[in-house]
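Contributing: when you submit paired examples, paste them exactly as shown. First protein:
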Amino acid sequence: MVSRQLIVGMPGSGKTTFIAALRHLLNANRVPTALVFDGFTDSERHLNRLEERWLACEEVDHTPAISNAWPILRLKDTATGNTASIAIPDISGEAFRQIAVTGRCRRSIYEAMVESSGLLLFTNADRATDNTMIVDEVRLAGELGGDEIGGGADDVGAPASFDPEKMPEETNLVELLQVMNRRPLSPSQRLLAVMVSAWDVVQATNVEPEEWVMMNRPMLWRYATSNPDLWTLRVYGVSAQGGKFPAQRVELQALEPSLRIKMIGPEATQHDLTVPIHWVLGALPVV
């Protein structure tokens, strides 16, 4: 039996880096984890390439838009001994953005949405907050000498065409979650682990992950918490790289690779990336 669980997010949200770090953590077996490897699969070549770049403290390549890889991990619950084969997709952020903008997606992603009972939703803390209000846009337009949004006094051209790449990340994320419960999909309750990546940029503030999402992704927080019939929410802060490249490369290369990983959130231990996966899976069945 293979259980499909989604790792989703917009481009640059940290999904692929998380998968690379997870591959190393499970393979190295240097720190305690809630889930451990129970054998290898045919997807090792894809995962090995990601892990090699991660170990070298290099930026992990963003997944190409044409990629549709489903690395399969055979995992065992360290508490119960139960095992399962888990398919975790390395699907491009562009593919998820397309879903949010058009409401349409590839057959493979559609099937994953149908089959998935939980998902890890990534958002990058090292980005500006998507909190510009309409009134602010009007004020800025006025200060620039124009009476309408999008133009100044000397701007008589047509309005710019809609560009989905300029939509706020938070809007895309909420729309993606809404798409998962629209026809032809049947609304169902899922476990939602919001993963705030690049947590190293905010950890010194001592803010908790839930509080960070409330302040910096308020639309996402309000949507998830206002729909308990659809989503059961947990929030995690994760630094899968451990810091910024290239500025901190030498410092990070001096560390045991597994100790570069930082995790904070419900039931999390400091370096264990498997905790949110363990939670969204629930109790692993015996296979």
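Second protein:
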Amino acid sequence: MENVIKDLEVREITNGYVEEEKGSIFRCIFCGETFEKGIIYTSRGRSVDAERAAAEHVYDMHNGPFESLVSLDKQFNGLTDIQKKLLTYMYEGLDNKEISRELDINTATVRTHKFKIQKMKREAKILLALLEFIENEDIMVADMKLSNSDKKKHQIYLEEIRGTFTGNTLHPFFTQFDLK
């Protein structure tokens, strides 16, 4: 499972299936079942195309992508049991008071858990952006070009202003005196 998910985009993970071979095959990320474009499938008592069959398969066989992802072991999704329950209740549309009753905890504790999840989300976004710098060659090349030109401009600026500062510039009081 981990090998399958690590190379997928967030949209593919939230769909629960991936489009392969330029849209000619749709594969369930949870069990690997495939649905081939051009074949009509029977799903929920009607005829559907491959992509619709894959989407309905994820819900019918795996209770949907949310349920499948939240029920993964901590080693895969990084969530504690309380975080999984909280996310499930949020997904079901429960408010803080209802969640606090379900979990038998204080409403303030629910808010704290939600805050921590939002913090995890921010951290995950930053981590994904940093990994994109490392793994995406186009971004890395563009970054190198920009950072090199910025470094040159910074060096020129430092050379221009060198000598204009005298004394100790760490504290405003000392900037009045030339201590050389």
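If you have annotations for the second protein, write them as plain sentences, like these:
The radius of gyration is 27 Å.
Residues 107-135 form the longest helix (29 residues).
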